[in-house]
Design a protein that fits this description.
alpha/beta, Rossmann fold, six-stranded mixed beta sheet, four-stranded antiparallel beta sheet, 8 helices, 10 strands
Length: 255
């Protein structure tokens, strides 16, 4: 089943004087199936975040359409949870309140909301910090709170915009493992933006590459999860292939 269908999508932005449009995305056609872990890579400014924002419903395409489960995306919704580069936590309250915040108050009473929040806080390994405010947490812990909050909302899809890019390498690798485990155990669909080819190979079931602006799809790779081994010769060759595609001059891949 396709969760997202992106058909002939173009997106542009006006300059500061509103006199000239800059095309950010050109003719994007992409289907994302249920339970996939799709990593989107490409050079800075190629439209990766713009594409994610279209799926989240934060923006609208200039041309084409973005469908979610067969219907048009016409705004944000709790079925599509977004994890940003920045943590977007409420600094004045604790971990429990931050995670509980997004849970539907019409659907669940206070006791049930706390139960749900505690479940996902435990899932991301922060139970002993449940009463801490964000200023007492490390960067990696703050990002785990943000992930727990999205999961507690009941989101079917996780849209993740370079969520670990501001973290040190050790913390980043740890959280890569955590999000892969959540994807596997919770049967979520994940769309994950990254600049790191190695991170995409480690996490993704499929890798999509965008060209430099205006962003177009110039590469796609299916990852054999059962054979995933970043130290193997096969994965070294695949990494090199992806790297070479990324470094090709625009005029050689533009079409």
């Amino acid at each position: 089943m396709n969760v997202f269908e992106i058909k002939g999508v173009y997106k542009s932005y006006l300059n500061a004087k509103n006199t000239q449009a800059r095309i950010a995305l050109r003719n994007i056609n992409l289907n994302i199936r249920e339970n996939e872990f799709v990593c989107i890579i490409g050079p800075s400014g190629c439209g990766k975040t713009t594409l994610l924002n279209l799926m989240a419903g934060f923006e609208e395409p200039l041309k084409g359409e973005v469908l979610f489960k067969g219907g048009p995306v016409d705004g944000a919704g709790p079925d599509r949870g977004v994890v940003f580069q920045e943590y977007s936590l409420m600094p004045w309250t604790n971990v429990l309140k931050n995670v509980e915040f997004g849970i539907d108050r019409k659907k669940y009473d206070k006791e049930k909301r706390v139960e749900i929040a505690r479940h996902f806080i435990d899932m991301v390994g922060l139970s002993e910090f449940i009463n801490h405010r964000p200023n007492l947490l490390s960067g990696g812990m703050k990002q785990r709170v943000a992930i727990a909050r999205v999961l507690a909302m009941g989101a079917e899809v996780l849209l993740m915009d370079e969520p670990f890019s501001n973290l040190d390498e050790q913390t980043r690798k740890h959280l890569d493992g955590e999000i892969k485990k959540i994807w596997r155990d919770e049967k979520k669909t994940v769309v994950f933006i990254t600049h790191s080819i190695e991170e995409a190979l480690l996490l993704g079931t499929r890798i999509i590459m965008l060209s430099s602006a205006p962003g177009m799809i110039i590469g796609e790779w299916i990852i054999d999860v059962d054979e995933r081994n970043l130290s193997s010769d096969a994965f070294s060759r695949l990494k090199e292939e992806i790297s070479q595609t990324l470094s090709k001059p625009k005029e050689k891949t533009d079409r």
